[in-house]
Amino acid sequence: MKKIEAIIKPFKLEEVKDALHDVGAEGMTVSEVKGFGRQKGHTEIYRGSEYTVDFLPKIKIELVLADSKVQEAVAAIIKAAKTGKIGDGKIFISGVEEAVRIRTEEKGENAV
Amino acid sequence: MKKIEAIIKPFKLEEVKDALHDVGAEGMTVSEVKGFGRQKGHTEIYRGSEYTVDFLPKIKIELVLADSKVQEAVAAIIKAAKTGKIGDGKIFISGVEEAVRIRTEEKGENAV
Amino acid sequence: MKKIEAIIKPFKLEEVKDALHDVGAEGMTVSEVKGFGRQKGHTEIYRGSEYTVDFLPKIKIELVLADSKVQEAVAAIIKAAKTGKIGDGKIFISGVEEAVRIRTEEKGENAV
Amino acid sequence: MKKLLSLFAFLAITVSALTLVRAEDPPKEAPKKADPNIEQRIADLEAYVNNGSRGADAADAKITSKVSGSGPGHNAFQMVSAALVLFMTLPGLFLFYGGLVRKKNILSVVAQCFGIAGLVTILWWAFGYSFVFGDGSSPWIGSFSKFAFLKDVDSNPNTNYSYWVSHNVFSMYQLMFAIITPALILGAIAERMKFSAVLLFVGLWMVVVYFPLAHAVWGIDGAMNGVWNPKALIKSIDFAGGTVVHMSSGWSALVLCLILGPRLGFGKQNMAPHSMTMCAIGTGMLWVGWYGFNAGSAVAADGIAANAFTTTTIAAAVASFVWAMLEYIIRGKPSILGFCSGAVAGLVVITPACGFVNTTGSVIIGVLAGLVPFLACAYLKPAFKYDDALDTFGVHAVGGTLGALLTGFLATGDVNANLSGDPAKANGLAKLVGNGLWLEQLKAMAITIVLSVVATVIIAYVVKAIVGLRPTEEDETQGLDLADHGEEGYHG
Amino acid sequence: MKKLLSLFAFLAITVSALTLVRAEDPPKEAPKKADPNIEQRIADLEAYVNNGSRGADAADAKITSKVSGSGPGHNAFQMVSAALVLFMTLPGLFLFYGGLVRKKNILSVVAQCFGIAGLVTILWWAFGYSFVFGDGSSPWIGSFSKFAFLKDVDSNPNTNYSYWVSHNVFSMYQLMFAIITPALILGAIAERMKFSAVLLFVGLWMVVVYFPLAHAVWGIDGAMNGVWNPKALIKSIDFAGGTVVHMSSGWSALVLCLILGPRLGFGKQNMAPHSMTMCAIGTGMLWVGWYGFNAGSAVAADGIAANAFTTTTIAAAVASFVWAMLEYIIRGKPSILGFCSGAVAGLVVITPACGFVNTTGSVIIGVLAGLVPFLACAYLKPAFKYDDALDTFGVHAVGGTLGALLTGFLATGDVNANLSGDPAKANGLAKLVGNGLWLEQLKAMAITIVLSVVATVIIAYVVKAIVGLRPTEEDETQGLDLADHGEEGYHG
Amino acid sequence: MKKLLSLFAFLAITVSALTLVRAEDPPKEAPKKADPNIEQRIADLEAYVNNGSRGADAADAKITSKVSGSGPGHNAFQMVSAALVLFMTLPGLFLFYGGLVRKKNILSVVAQCFGIAGLVTILWWAFGYSFVFGDGSSPWIGSFSKFAFLKDVDSNPNTNYSYWVSHNVFSMYQLMFAIITPALILGAIAERMKFSAVLLFVGLWMVVVYFPLAHAVWGIDGAMNGVWNPKALIKSIDFAGGTVVHMSSGWSALVLCLILGPRLGFGKQNMAPHSMTMCAIGTGMLWVGWYGFNAGSAVAADGIAANAFTTTTIAAAVASFVWAMLEYIIRGKPSILGFCSGAVAGLVVITPACGFVNTTGSVIIGVLAGLVPFLACAYLKPAFKYDDALDTFGVHAVGGTLGALLTGFLATGDVNANLSGDPAKANGLAKLVGNGLWLEQLKAMAITIVLSVVATVIIAYVVKAIVGLRPTEEDETQGLDLADHGEEGYHG
Ligand SMILES: Nc1ncnc2c1ncn2[C@@H]1O[C@H](COP(=O)(O)OP(=O)(O)O)[C@@H](O)[C@H]1O
Ligand SMILES: Nc1ncnc2c1ncn2[C@@H]1O[C@H](COP(=O)(O)OP(=O)(O)O)[C@@H](O)[C@H]1O
Ligand SMILES: Nc1ncnc2c1ncn2[C@@H]1O[C@H](COP(=O)(O)OP(=O)(O)O)[C@@H](O)[C@H]1O
User: What is the ipTM of this complex?
Assistant: First the structure.
């Protein structure tokens, strides 16, 4: 099993979710994160005080899935999340040794 | 060392934490996430506009621990988090190569 | 490629970010998390009800980078995040198999 | 659906019962009266400034008045006061309470407040106002039909209650009290009572508890209206609602929360307020709005209102400070919730007293209001383990009870001439002031508690039988916002 | 920069145009008048209590008055009312609307409300007030110069509009209406109109739509001022702004939102309110502030104000309850937004009627206000797929239109003697009340709709040509808070 | 504990000092006075409408009055005004300031505001009111004992300050000023001063700075009361508190923030407002409440109040617009904080002037209020690097100073006859108006600045010595909410 972590632009979440769903990903977990990268932030001024905000709002999607489905899922994410503008985000893939579904205690690929 | 990531129902956090503590897990990190899975979401209507909310609030617990403690910890999580109803969540286990305690710069299993 | 996950004290974020930037880390993703560890929490009393808050606000920094840069990055984080007081946090390192830049579809170390 | 049906049935029955009310006899042809002379005209104008009665107001008056309508200063004050009391509920109370619940239940508090506002207004219009302020029926209950559908409640003063405030404004002012009183109960049962059950409970409770009690205490021929009813059975006094508002809601709240049982996870899960900031905002609004509640209860912008304004300010500020300083001493940290609770407790305790006690009295009340409810919330509740979620009992029942009693000890004719007015002389109150009045107060308090407790038990079981009281475990766990209203308090 | 320049150009032109206004002729030397005698002095004092005219107020008066200035009760009420109407916009409306937008646009709503407050105040001071309430010019437009720069608008009453309220207070009270009206439009175009475009649009819209319309309806010599203008061309009535405020803003809002087009992602992305709690707070404040709006429109703390206060309360509460109960029946869950929308709809619909209908009329209005706008929001909008983001059209246009019409049917001289006063007799209104008035109402409604729609189309395209209407896609996606104001609503 | 002890010691000492105050001489037996005749009765009623004095108010009056108490319109207005000024602090100011701090310190701002409300009320009751408004002592300080414990402060007017407003209402109205003034200081020292230190500082500051200054400016025999004291030493004028409220708090704030030093991480960490939305809500409430502050300062609902209401509105709206438009020009984006700061600055600058300048004056003030404090906040503060966290100095000190000076130039007898009343003639003010008054203003300003600065230095070091000023680094880092109050602003 692999874990895909995708950092995407917030307003792309719905599309990416649908795309993943279409390729058979049945579960995923998302969180609100802040990203620092090439996309530059902005400056906010509050009266005399100026603050540079380097961190931009991003969404992180985590999903664990069988090795066989990884390529398809990555392709789906790219397709849905790409705007071509800087800041579109990254996808990271790493190995997962075991998965358990708490409700049924199923293990492995059956659990994801 | 292994990393356990458990996605659980929010109101189970206290119990899971206590259970993990009981089996000797001394540290963990939790975050608020949204989950998409078999458990269906709900629909919200604001005057004429209807929105389907597919993502449900979940809690993600991450803890890194020595290989030897993994089984016990997983069992503890399952025991505490299980309600038997859909949406109970998942546990994922993956490898961790190194751990460092910032304060002391201790490394490896001493650091977790 | 490796993934570094660092749990740090919230007010250290700016310093750690700058330190990482200085050693050439061009991207990172941060999230607000709650930590449970040796650092003890506090008690809040609302009229007659007392609540123990075990979870303390922490920041999690995730960054993926080439194997060669890991040591330097870890050192930078430790330097910037250390206060010497309990609760300074942890750094975890694990393997990443693949990385993709969504915008360009670049892969591997070019993508991080 | 069942729940909805029963609610509508309830409304329909009460309203249609009234359509049976026959038209009153046609007004008797009034004998032609004389115009006032110069002296009388001046006296009428002076009456306006002094909030006194016109020559034409006397039952047997032979003259008319050239200023027979409402008077601007008093009417303006009463309208603003009514708006302020509404402000106490919407948004004051729903912020004060809403800030203290968990995020998933914030909207349920809001919906309950709005729902009560709508429901009670309809009841009030249909027969509630008449039931409370329609005189000529009984000391314990007003006339069901006299002012039904607000018939004859127009812009002219009803001199039973005010010489210079429009009758319709008075009725709206009193409506705001009728709205906030049941809304106070919400604090005890927060986070675990179904919306349909809340509405049905409140509808019945108004009819059985509030309307009769308010009539007995404030109706011109009410059994416990010591100040205005020369034939009062109990010579107790309650300026702005220690018994009617705070004791009735507070004691009912205790009973209802016992019947309901504690929230799921009570004592185990962390149920800390989701927004103390919001609670503090609500407190500020309650305090400001309370001026309408207390000073407005003079039903005139006169010296009694001025006195009530003053004592209210002092009691609230002192109690807020005392409560927080007690925490400072005992726990080492003065809390925001302490300041807020103290302020509200001060306002509650001064409520029955504000128009009857002087400044010194208000300081004493402030100190005790910071102390006694603090003890109730901090020690009584944990000791008995009932889940009075937001301390309606601890603050309103304990505070209202304390206030009603203290009024008996501290009331003084110096600040309120009505305490030795004709009705008070007739029924004996005048002699009791400063001299055993507290015994009369005790009687009124006992009646209030008995009525509230007994009626609440019965109504609660009736409601339980019809629509059920609590949501499913799943709904309660998910939160009432989504379960009952299909919305979330915050997004994104 | 271009946008800014055009804004300033606009301001500069309008203001400097006025510097050309020549000084008025010197006031004619008034012939010496006699002091009032005792009888007259008493009559003047009675006039104060009754909100009537002094002897000296008559055009041909030969006596002076010893109470020739403003009167405390009325003036106090009017000042408080003005403050309440401001409270409706800042913070009432920006919370009500702001709670309904997404987090990234909350501040843009706030900024637009504040920006409008500043801009409209400047226009009002320079010439707007004069344009609306300066008489002697035309039935369709006020005098451009009579009260320019608020010249001669001092603390003495302008008896055209009130016997006892200071002229300057009246002008500030009316300013608050002029501020909230364009701010209502913001609901339809929320989240997708540039700040510069909003300001420019509002500036032009005030001059072309609001000022003329307000003059025609409320100016003493206005074409549609049935109550006060003996020569009214259309004998319609509008107590507190059904046409002037709600229809004008509501219909303009629809047109503008159609021209703007829907928000990016409309119908696809989840655009749920970022804080229903905030929306509910705003609703409570709007309701409370609306008492200033409606009762204050009597421009006196008199019986008409009292009536308006009462009908406003009932309509709001009933409509709130009805809207939510409709949802309960149809969807199974009464929503907080339903309670809030219903309350606001009730307030909108009663606005033109509040000083003219009785309690029964207000219940009818409450029921219909809960029903008709509900249908518009829940079914009309989805059917036609226009993006009236926060339902300005559904609530204000539909509600205002409904209210203006219902006023025609339900108005009754019983609660407002002015409906059969001298001007109303002169122009024929007196006969129309209860007897075909709705046809006059229809005329006024038609004129309001035509003016609003046509003018909005033209102004929108003018603004589009000068500064453009919409932000870039990137700005809209990022949110207007950062794009237009460089700030975020919440941190940390 | 130490801190707490010293606080209580402070309270105890001040209060017990008063118990030594001996009972006043028994009131002299008043000679029997005649009843008023018809003419006098009418004149008294006219006096009510005109806010004039009754025949019986004259020092040597030989007649009584039939309207000797308070008058409804004025009293109503004053009570509402007092409530509005309280609304400015709770919740207005704590939202305005609280929105601007970081999340971890929001409750500390709330607690400080509530704590001040409680503490100052107790001081006010014990001796503060007497110290300010008790006459007969000295031009620089009031009588310590005359009205101690609010003795003799009842519902009858104290004609030194108002003919028609109840004395107790006046005292509560002024209490609200005494509460908000030290609360303004909190803006400069936010996020880094211990709660115990804040309370102790404020307690001392009230006694040393506020009470004397308020007496000198507003006491009937105050040294700088140009309008009312025929023997004023300095003929300066200050309608609603440019010197007493804004300069005193603003200059003290600067000094205190310099002594405290900057927040940990100042200039390095991001300290952006945690909720600009909340700040904007607070601004709206401050604006609305300010009508009570400014118009209420007429202590009557008369033409002067009307004028103050008008100038306040215009100055606030214009300044808000100007500040934001300056940002628009200079930075390309008008900010919400700009609109808010401008509005508050406009309100501050018009405060001393509102009852003395006309509409044109208020426009000038509005423009300068948008400009000068903007420059102070945007350029002066960064240049000097002091950490005036929420710009109390930039807005209140700079604005108050500007306002006090502009009042000297723009005041005109046309809008306020008191500028040429008997006392003003006696002390020479009448001649100075429009003619060198600004020099007198300068004197008053200098005295205010010197007193504030010197006293603050001393008090700050005294407090530092007793309880210490700053929290530990750990506490400050964690946030004062948890450290000082054991609560968090938001959960879940
Ligand atoms: N090395 C990295 N490790 C973790 N997250 C990263 C890394 N690089 C980029 N990111 C995440 O991806 C987001 C987009 O990256 P950015 O450099 O701004 O744009 P792009 O990927 O289009 O070049 C960042 O905001 C950050 O959240
Ligand atoms: N493949 C997956 N990858 C990551 N998270 C998942 C995955 N599947 C499920 N989850 C997480 O687990 C939660 C519970 O899953 P769900 O399918 O609803 O119930 P159950 O696990 O009981 O079948 C989801 O809300 C989601 O957060
Ligand atoms: N085994 C672990 N797995 C995951 N996170 C951990 C673990 N141990 C500690 N942490 C995180 O590190 C933070 C600091 O740990 P703590 O034990 O309080 O202090 P220290 O690291 O200085 O001993 C914790 O709050 C938690 O977020």
Answer: 0.96
